[in-house]
Design brief:
It is built from 2 helices and no strands. The chain is mainly α.
Length: 42
């Protein structure tokens, strides 16, 4: 899919991934609650 909409969605997805990586969120869902708690402490 190379529609303008698909490109925007893909770009937003990459931005969200980069945000999560730079803020130290883990890929594992079992650590999700810890990630949320750690982000609230900052």
């Amino acid at each position: 899919m190379n529609t303008p909409y698909a490109k925007r969605v893909a770009e937003k997805f990459r931005e969200a991934q980069n945000y999560l990586k730079t803020n130290g969120f883990s890929r594992s869902t079992k650590h999700l609650i810890e990630d949320i708690e750690n982000s609230l402490e900052k």
